[in-house]
């Protein structure tokens, strides 16, 4: 039985991965959290070697999936020292421990390693991050490429899905529109919306098949964020008139965003049996969850 350790199992993708892998009895899955004790998960601070050592010596994993990171792009831009400590030094610390136990490493990276000038990008396109979050994630990739051959680097982006604990783009949209609040959405940020359960299933198949290298694992379609938002509102049954199209430069954001981005999926289509799904199919799944949620008592507000 393979032992899988998900570092960051308390996060959006980490939770979904834990649920997905746990269903397969050929694996024993473990997970970690960093803040706020969570039952059945181990505490791990990626900046503390002793904390990492304690978890690894207890579990002795075969596969380590690193989903933990500071991912709020604006926060990363403003808090560079903390971001470097977690997104770069934290990866160094984890990789050191993985080498001791001869673990396979699966590292979740991002399309933000690209500048968004000539997208969409394949796996061998030239990297050139334009914000600090992207810089730190690229440094994480380089550490793994340098230190181990037993790795899989997964670049993904705009990961969405139904999760009341998450503030992914679709949950923010549902919260705003269901409360009859307007929402500004950029018309010029082109990307690859990725349905979280589909992403988790593809990562799980990578574990099954011992896939190595660098892979784009995202949804099957590339579109701008406003178009995505309109599709979401139409599919879920929310008021799309509350969505305000705006250019990124007018949002007053601190961190630069790659605009003409998106990731090509030919490599993953050739490699995996589980295929990336369309935005339409992903949003239909979100709608099912939303309908079930609406059946709950009125006093149980979203993000309770």
Automatic annotation (TrEMBL):
The keyword NADP applies. Keywords: NADP, Oxidoreductase. GO terms for biological process: dTDP-rhamnose biosynthetic process. Gene3D superfamilies: NAD(P)-binding Rossmann-like Domain (3.40.50.720). Pathway: Carbohydrate biosynthesis; dTDP-L-rhamnose biosynthesis. Coiled coil: none annotated. GO terms for molecular function: dTDP-4-dehydrorhamnose reductase activity. Residues 3-289 form the RmlD-like substrate binding domain. It comes from the Bacteria. Its EC number is 1.1.1.133. CDD domains: dTDP_HR_like_SDR_e. Catalyzes the reduction of dTDP-6-deoxy-L-lyxo-4-hexulose to yield dTDP-L-rhamnose. Belongs to the dTDP-4-dehydrorhamnose reductase family. This is dTDP-4-dehydrorhamnose reductase. It comes from Clostridium cylindrosporum DSM 605.
